């Protein structure tokens, strides 16, 4: 599949608008994968960005690339979102630097361990912390800065695994909890003008990652996996990023407490999961 500018994949095309011009947005896990696509789309739309990830080199190359494209430099910090003090300090620093936050995206996440008979208690607690614990602490730390901006939008990246059963129950259970968390926080923070929504990507075709490798290394297994999708194609991270940008924009002012699957009507995992 060729990479194209804008649209379903690739880098944002010139003039690609996302309704986020001037918005101050913090994205966790913005150096690679879906988070990188979100950061790039928002930066191209004129947003001011803060992002974190564990690997400093990836943050440096993202910064260099955005700067070379004329989108300014994001405020970055190398940290693990499961370390509460580091995450809180980063959110505080971003909120002060930007004099408030208009948007927050809890994107960092993932799974540890395998099936229920192999996964140990650490796999369960780490998976919970990476997804749910990090999101709860992120929102708590961001609330004063969102209030200072007069309200804002929080987007929680959950997963198809959070609402359709599949292997790695510790991951699905944590993602389901994120969906519930978003709906609950939307009610709790709504009086302050803070909207909270969850987005559930299907299995994303991310260059060099799991499904992209399967596509090139095991084409027959990939064809079996994607055959059940109505168009036989996985969703792209760009398509998910576009929905995130919409939820951060004022065009979605009436949407809060919602759960938006972005999965091209995907309905079945591989034996290893979604
Ligand atoms: N991939 C899929 O098909 C898929 C499908 C549905 C939902 N999701 C969800 O979408 C989100 C992004 O997935 P992805 O596949 O794009 O993830 P990824 O490629 O594994 O990582 C995305 C970003 O998160 C950072 N990150 C990961 N763990 C972190 C941690 N503990 N602390 C700080 N930063 C961390 C990574 O940088 P470092 O590694 O340098 O920290 C990277 O910048 C996750 O919440 C995932 O559960 C993914």
Automatic annotation (TrEMBL):
Listed EC numbers: 1.1.1.100
Q: Which InterPro entries match?
A: KR_dom (IPR057326), NAD(P)-bd_dom_sf (IPR036291), SDR_fam (IPR002347)
According to the UniProt record, where is the region Disordered? 1-24, 254-274
What is the superkingdom listed in this entry's lineage?
Bacteria
Report whether Cell inner membrane shows up as a keyword of the record: no
All copies of the Ketoreductase domain together span 23-202
Any matching Pfam family = adh_short_C2
Alphabetized UniProt keyword annotations: Oxidoreductase
Q: Which GO terms describe its molecular function?
A: 3-oxoacyl-[acyl-carrier-protein] reductase (NADPH) activity
What is the similarity comment for this entry?
Belongs to the short-chain dehydrogenases/reductases (SDR) family.
* Descriptive protein name: 3-oxoacyl-[acyl-carrier protein] reductase
- Cite the source lineage: Bacteria, Bacillati, Actinomycetota, Actinomycetes, Kitasatosporales
């Amino acid at each position: 599949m060729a990479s194209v500018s804008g649209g379903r994949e690739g880098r944002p095309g010139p003039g690609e608008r996302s309704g986020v011009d001037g918005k101050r947005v913090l994205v966790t896990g913005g150096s690679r994968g879906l988070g990188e696509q979100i950061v790039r789309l928002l930066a191209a739309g004129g947003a001011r960005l803060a992002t974190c990830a564990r690997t400093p080199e990836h943050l440096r190359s993202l910064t260099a690339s955005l700067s070379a494209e004329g989108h300014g430099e994001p405020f970055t910090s190398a940290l693990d979102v499961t370390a509460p003090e580091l995450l809180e300090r980063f959110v505080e620093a971003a909120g002060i630097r930007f004099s408030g936050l208009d948007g927050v995206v809890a994107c960092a996440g993932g799974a540890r361990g395998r099936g229920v008979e192999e996964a140990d208690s650490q796999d369960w607690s780490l998976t919970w912390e990476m997804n749910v614990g990090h999101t709860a602490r992120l929102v708590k730390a961001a609330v004063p800065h969102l209030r200072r901006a007069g309200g804002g939008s929080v987007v929680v990246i959950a997963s198809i695994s959070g609402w359709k059963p599949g292997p790695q129950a510790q991951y699905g259970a944590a993602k389901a909890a994120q969906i519930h968390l978003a709906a609950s926080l939307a009610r709790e923070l709504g009086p302050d003008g803070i909207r909270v929504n969850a987005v559930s990507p299907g299995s994303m075709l991310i260059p060099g990652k799991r499904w992209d490798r399967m596509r090139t290394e095991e084409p027959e297994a990939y064809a079996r996996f994607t055959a059940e999708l109505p168009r036989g194609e996985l969703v792209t991270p760009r398509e998910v990023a576009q929905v995130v940008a919409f939820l951060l924009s004022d065009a979605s002012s009436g949407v809060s407490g919602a759960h938006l699957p972005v999965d091209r009507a995907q309905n079945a995992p591989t034996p290893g999961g979604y």
